Amino acid sequence: MATSRSPIGRCPSCQSDIPSHRVLIEYERTDGPAAYAECPDCRDVVRPE
Ligand SMILES: [Zn+2]
């Protein structure tokens, strides 16, 4: 069975899945919620897409 560790999105640079525990900041935008997270692969802070 799937666990609760579903990714919140993918790194726009390297396309790696970003798990939810990597999220640094969540915030609201006019078009909905958004977040910044640390990519586990390239170790950049990115906006998951
Ligand atoms: Zn990355």
Note the topology.
Blueprint: E1 7-10, E2 17-19, E3 23-29, E4 32-38, E5 45-46
Antiparallel strand pairs: 1-2, 3-4, 4-5
Bound molecules: zinc ion.
Residues 11, 13-14, 16, 39, 41-42, 44 line the site of zinc ion.
What this model shows, in words?
This protein is mainly beta and 49 residues long. It has a domain at 14-46. The protein has no helices and 5 strands. The chain has strands at residues 7-10, 17-19, 23-29, 32-38, 45-46. It has a 3-stranded antiparallel beta sheet with strand order 3-4-5, with no helix packed on it. A hairpin with a 2-residue loop joins strand 3 and strand 4. It is globular, with a radius of gyration of 11 Å. The relative contact order is 0.32. The model has no long low-confidence stretch (mean pLDDT 91). It binds zinc ion (ZN).
Which short descriptors sum up this protein?
49 residues; mainly beta; 3-stranded antiparallel beta sheet; two-stranded antiparallel sheet; 5 strands; 0% helix; binds zinc ion
